[in-house]
Amino acid sequence: MRTPAPSLVPSRAPARRYALAGLALAALACLATAPAAAEATYPSKPITIVVAYPPGGSTDLMGRMLGTELSSRLGQPVVIENIGGAGGAIGAAKVAVAQPDGYTLLVGASNELAINKLVTKKVRYDIKDFTAIGLIASQPLVLVASPASGVKNAADFVQRVAKSPGKYSYGSSGVGTSLHLAGEMLKDQGKLFMTHIPYRGVAPLTNDLVGNNLEYGVFVLSSGLPHIKSGKVIALGTTEAKRSPLTPDIPALAELPQFKNVDIGVWFALMAPAQLPKPVYDKLRKALVDTLQSAEFRKKMEATGSVVASPAVDTDKYIASEIAKYQKIVQFAKIEE
């Protein structure tokens, strides 16, 4: 039997396979270079900043002021999206699972970034789900007394509360907030026994203090200052280690021996989803640092009672230390929702 002679016409199958393979490689190359191209042209469309509270609060004000600055520096509109609920957790959760492309950011406060996870099991996100662009600013809290309390300063406050354990109450804007934790830190450090009254926000807390239905309360400085200046409440002391440069006439509670370790406030940070590409991070970081170094921005922040953060602060380490601080207070007060 004769073996058939090999065909002198070359088969087209290998050539077709090579062509298809080339097209596949080209497609993969395009897919690989597309993200890099997008990062290089970032930002090429409007950016959304999520504020995890309704309009009008301190975090909302911070987000809008920063958004204006970032827009001018990045050359794109910045849209503020208010997503209130669950002490800031709903808005923060949206950013935690967003596409890490730099177009969805969070201006977050200490509540949703550091405290919520410690006080409720309902919070599913973690600080590791974010990329920290940097701290923006901070504010001290302020302990105040109602006019009818008869208390004029922090020393009076300590003496009166220590003399009658359980008789007096203090109010905050809600369970697990920075204001609540500040009150519990004072109880722990001063060995004081007071009842915590959680309110649904600052407005009803203010009404009860001004109306002499509550002896003591904790405010964010910017919220309390108008009522302090008008004489509707008495400022007993701020809660950071040193007096606020914005209110040098109000003593720091840490000036009393009982409260020497009291150091707590509310802070704000610009965050993005985890795995943010470095070129995008670098552009956002530069825009934030330029903003923090702007004299005009600092002046605006001071008018709100805030102190602008130093760009030199390591944000990740700072937030980790704050979480450790809050954890101790939560354990002392047995706070859980």
Blueprint (SSEs and pairs):
Blueprint: H1 13-40, E1 47-51, H2 58-74, E2 78-82, H3 89-96, E3 104-109, H4 110-119, E4 130-145, H5 154-163, E5 169-172, H6 178-190, E6 195-198, H7 202-210, E7 216-220, H8 221-229, E8 234-238, E9 265-273, H9 278-292, H10 295-303, E10 307-308, H11 315-333
Parallel strand pairs: 1-2, 1-3, 5-6, 5-7
Antiparallel strand pairs: 3-9, 4-7, 4-8, 4-9, 4-10
Please give the radius of gyration in angstroms. 27 Å
The CATH superfamily of the largest domain is Bordetella uptake gene, domain 1
What is the number of independent domains?
Answer: 2
CATH fold-level label of the largest domain: D-Maltodextrin-Binding Protein, domain 2
- What's the mean pLDDT score? 90
Please tell me the CATH architecture of the largest domain by its name. Answer: 3-Layer(aba) Sandwich
Q: Give me the count of strands.
A: 10
Oligomer: single chain
Beta content:
15-25%
Structural class: alpha/beta
CATH uppermost class of the largest domain: Alpha Beta
H/I helix tally: 11
Report the uncertain regions: 1-10
